[in-house]
Specification:
heterodimer; A: 281 residues; mainly alpha; B: alpha/beta; 6-stranded mixed sheet; 10 strands; 24% strand; globular
């Protein structure tokens, strides 16, 4: 085949200018940012006021400062770190397992009407069972500790990722399938190069939900079926009449949840969907 | 050589049968540039998809080089109207997709995509993603992807329909240049009379729904063709006369559909 060089006339297309794509970090304008901070400050002020005015019994209602002191104590004793590490470890394990099972299952359900006919009724039946309801069974099966908590996170979280992946596959443009057929792509190439990246907007949304559900259920699970973790820390504080420690645990959960749910998944989206123009920031 | 023998295509929906194509027979010679021209809804894209092997005819069939078509094949490639590029792949990966499917070694793939990106003038855009390109550039990537698998038959489904007039003209010239150079057989679907006359050796004019072959018009003028010349003007009037009543009939059919609430 001859090497055909490109005719000069066509190069001056307007697209060169268009072709620069800026990925702007989504940052709130200063005014809105301050509004958000002001509301959080107001919340703490009201909290302090309720404490000072004695609207709640002091032994059950700590002041913000007492919570800060409790934080200091927990950090110094290493309790905060070990319990946080325990919770995060279970969370990551449970969520990864849910993804490992849920994504392939969702792909299969989305791609095959037979699989949907066979498995969807069972899934729909299991789905409304709250994760917490699995705890007693989990303790019977796996005893108190790591495995039973992971099991509960897994069963709470798998549905979001599975159903989302399924929807992603079902809404994938038929044109991509046409292209795959025209170029005689194998089943595995189709799955790897088209089905998974094409469903990624839904897969990421599903992982966000799965992660969120897991993180919300972990505390309940640890209160009942564990002797470590942030849930245990909170529940154990009840026996010591230490509401300040309870609130430390709650704040830690909030911070970790906020950072990971927003920052981590936003980062993943930035690297994939935004880069591919499949989502506009 | 491509032969289309007595193709019929019927769709069944809500228990009633609709004919999309009736008794289409056609012979296309190797290296020929053929346009399928017809009013919207006449089934010209359906015919192209049958040739591509993406859908089956209800009866009749397509034979390529003596072999009946039962599905997509390595000697055919399709360029779709809305490009159908994969947004998650770079321009280069998109061009190499057919080669990846054919399990070519990475080095060879790279060589071919580099050459074809040069052919379509996108060497500087190899590592970009499709959303960073203009419509015309996207369609050039799509053409490069089709050429990469070195098909003898290039099927194009209104490939320039989404482009503005200027880009459209540029792309038509690009396509003719590539066609001359690589000697592909091209089947090109369009609803534009000018485009059909400018590009084709022969124009297959189709009727309004259900699609039949109304007339086959040969365009003998040598390329490059001057659309303003007397001969080309006469040719345009000729095609317009043939297509005109079909366009009117297609419009009447559409109106009737809307009245019936279909």
């Amino acid at each position: 085949m001859a090497d055909v060089s490109y005719s000069k006339t066509v190069i001056g297309e307007p697209a060169k200018a268009e072709a620069v794509v800026k990925s702007s970090p989504r940052r709130l304008p200063t005014r809105e940012r301050w509004l958000g901070i002001a509301t959080i400050v107001a919340f703490i002020v009201i909290w302090e006021a309720v404490y000072r005015l004695g609207l709640m019994p002091k032994w059950a209602f700590p002041s913000p400062w007492q919570v800060v002191l409790a934080f200091q104590e927990l950090i110094a004793s290493g309790k905060l770190l070990t319990n946080t590490a325990a919770s995060v470890g279970r969370q990551i394990t449970g969520v990864l397992l849910a993804a490992l099972v849920g994504i392939p299952a969702g792909l299969a359900l989305g791609a095959s009407p037979t699989a949907r006919a066979a498995f969807l009724p069972l899934c729909r039946l299991l789905y409304p069972i709250p994760g917490i309801a699995w705890i007693p069974l989990a303790i019977l099966w796996f005893g108190v500790g790591f495995t039973s908590t992971v099991f509960v996170i897994f069963f709470s979280g798998i549905w979001s990722i599975m159903f989302n992946t399924m929807t992603g596959v079902q809404t994938l443009s038929g044109q991509y399938t046409d292209v795959a057929n025209v170029y005689l792509a194998s089943r595995s190439l189709y799955t790897r190069r088209i089905l998974i990246p094409g469903s990624l907007p839904y897969i990421i949304a599903g992982m966000r939900l799965t992660y969120g559900v897991g993180w919300r259920v972990i505390v309940g699970a640890e209160m009942i079926s564990s002797i470590t973790g942030l849930g245990f820390l909170i529940d154990d504080a009840r026996w010591q009449l230490r509401p300040d420690i309870m609130i430390c645990g709650m704040i830690t959960i909030a911070m970790i949840g906020w950072v990971s749910e927003n920052w981590f998944f936003d980062w993943v989206e930035e690297k994939t969907l935004v880069r591919w123009g499949m989502r506009t920031t | 050589m491509l032969t289309i023998e007595n193709i019929n295509k019927k769709y069944v929906s809500h228990g009633s049968e609709t004919s999309a194509l009736v008794d289409i027979s056609l012979r296309i010679e190797k290296g020929e540039f053929i346009c399928l021209l017809g009013p919207s809804g006449c089934g010209k894209s359906t015919l192209l998809r049958i040739i591509a092997g993406l859908i089956q005819a209800t009866s009749g069939g397509v034979v390529i080089e003596g072999k009946p078509v039962s599905g997509p094949g390595p000697e055919r490639a399709v360029v779709f109207q809305d490009y159908a590029l994969f947004p998650w792949m770079t321009v280069r990966d998109n061009v190499e997709f057919g080669l990846e499917a054919r399990k070519l070694p990475v080095g060879e793939r790279h060589e071919i995509s580099t050459r074809l990106l040069k052919v379509v003038g996108l060497s500087d855009f190899a590592e970009r993603f499709p959303h960073q390109l203009s419509g015309g550039m996207k369609q050039r990537v799509s053409i490069a992807r089709a050429l990469a698998v070195d098909p003898s038959l290039l099927l194009m489904d209104e490939p320039f329909g989404a482009l503005d007039a200027q880009n459209r003209q540029l792309m038509q010239d690009e396509l003719l240049r590539i066609w001359r150079e690589y000697r592909k057989t091209v089947v090109f679907v369009t609803h534009s009379i000018e485009e059909a006359i400018y590009l084709s050796d022969r124009i297959v004019v189709m009727t309004a729904r259900p699609g039949r072959v109304k007339q086959i018009i040969t365009v003998p003028e040598t390329r490059p063709r001057d659309m303003a010349s007397v001969e080309m003007n006469r040719r345009q009037r000729e095609v317009r006369a043939v297509l005109g009543e079909e366009i009117a009939r297609a419009a009447a059919l559409e109106e009737a559909d809307l009245m019936a609430g279909a």
